[in-house]
């Protein structure tokens, strides 16, 4: 454990910070650098919330693991009865297959350059891929060596990827190719209603939910002619969190809800006390003339994802005080106003400015927890346990 | 080497792609996933350009290594006669100290929670820290175990960190504390004119350059009363690249110039052919109705740094064709218009849309090369050699 000599005033502050950290609240995390704290209870409650909702609605729950990217956090889903998962890359699928998952959907347009690793996965697990073009379908039919499940990816309004539901020609062409292939088997029709993130009101999010289902039902009807067991799969945290009616839906695939974040809070999807991660950051400087506090915690820890708050300020995170590994509501009038590579600049009130000292550690609730989690090498729990995770290309 | 069966039309395209990659141009990099290509010649030319400029102006060159974060690329600077460097964290300083650098400035407000590792560095190398508060100065005096150099950090207009030049009270207080300390020794006065990035014209960047120097000269005069050998240090890529007059300057510390990027290009600081890195990305889908191309290459590879182009489109990167490990000018009317976690969406013209095929690999010139490099685990040269780099907390 780190010790300082208590000889001058600034040291008292540091001692206080450590007393605060180690003794009074028995919070044993020795934080020296930006550290991603995970509140395991909140995280497990989030998992329970969604598992329970899927169970009550009698729909399959295939959570997206791109948010946490961790075998251990994945195991908490297994504890809740989850058996199939969603990931966003071949590498991530390989990581979770090694962790024991044997039913994995790669919810990303097939990267045909990775066919060798796709075949390795298809040999060992129940793999599902997305189809959205005749070209990639033909490639898979010619190059897959093992039976593989496929979902038709439909664009219900997000306009990022997928076949438009009215594109009967390509949909039928792909269905026909799949039907005549000995390698491919249609698992279902699927969408990601990412445009729900642009909604201004809850009603708008619910409207996107029902609208997406209706568009998918039309495609499912076409697909069912060829594949009677074809399912309908939707998935995003806003609609899955808010909706109570899943009529027509067979499967949901939300991911972000495992941690939630400020973006979801601003959308009205979660409360502050459901946000399960906070980046602990050392305070390194203060600028009294501007009521600004400088933290060690920048774009390489949080990502440059931003959002506008109610006062139209662009923000990169909200600030919480850390106590006993817990955090309460964000501090009022206080937010990260800019990020450099390693610096975070916090704008705050005069009162809060006086309370926060150099050498303290404060928490940042991220705007987009998926990107913050991706940047950090591991999670730290209240008991200072490190939870490891996948890292791209390492 | 990866092989495909040439049985159907789409396969011809893939075969072409590989022929293109492996044979015709003898480019031996087997790219399957987002891969950060480094053009070693361009990078070495960029290093030479800045080393030569410093040498001609008889000023010390202490390059910032936070952009490349690589021991090997660092060694190319050593080849050019550089002996002292700048980094942005204690961990990064430790990485480069292990690589043999023994004169390192950590250009970040002192994180007093890392005093133990700061002492380890101070014991072994000629370490320099930034001072910008009386509190941190007192802490260092009480807790440093070895002689350490310090720079006074002055805010000449960026308003991120540093003492305002008119803050004589704190400047004199810190100078007096340093003077009376047996541990601290003033190396110089320093600024980072980050506001040069907000400039609209070259003249404005040069005006920031001269203005910063003038403000620092005033502080240097005060500091020289205590420390006659005190130097004046400035550093950022825009001013260091453009300026030819360094009267009054003793040291420059630019970093980004080692790779440059689209942000620097839009500022008028570099040409396209000076940009030394490109992210190679597989093409995974196409959307004909929108002239959009989807690549495997998203926020977790490029970062969410964006910039507005001349037509006021928010862009996340420009697109180049890869040939023989080289790339030419960006494709006209073509840019990344949005990024998800793993997806990049490219808007392009009808003509270019037809040329680019699923299964091809295209290059992305990043908006901010520091953040893209930070996200990637290594660099790949034209000869498929991997150049490793520092990673935070690993």
Question: What can you tell me about this protein's structure?
Answer:
- The structure is a homodimer of 394-residue chains.
- Chain A has helices at residues 9-24, 40-56, 71-79, 90-98, 115-124, 134-143, 168-179, 202-226, 237-242, 262-266, 299-302, 350-355, 369-375; strands at 35-38, 60-61, 85-87, 103-109, 126-131, 148-153, 184-190, 231-234, 251-252, 277-287, 292-296, 307-308, 314-315, 317-323, 326-327, 335-339, 343-347, 361-366, 378-380, 386-388.
- The two termini of chain A are 30 Å apart.
- In chain A, the strands form four sheets. In chain A, strands 1, 10, 11, 14, 15, 16, 17 and 18 form an eight-stranded antiparallel β-sheet that branches.
- In chain A, strand 7 (184-190), helix 8 (202-226) and strand 8 form a beta-alpha-beta unit.
- In chain A, helix 4 runs parallel beside helix 5 (115-124), helix 6 runs parallel beside helix 7 (168-179) and helix 7 (168-179) crosses helix 8 (202-226).
- The first copy, chain A, is built from 13 helices and 20 strands.
- Residues 1-27 of chain A have low confidence and may be disordered.
- The first copy, chain A, is α/β, with parallel strands linked by helices and 394 residues long.
- In chain A, 55% of the residues are buried.
- Chains A and B meet through helix 1, helix 5, helix 6, strand 10 and helix 11 of A and helix 1, helix 5, helix 6, strand 10 and helix 11 of B.
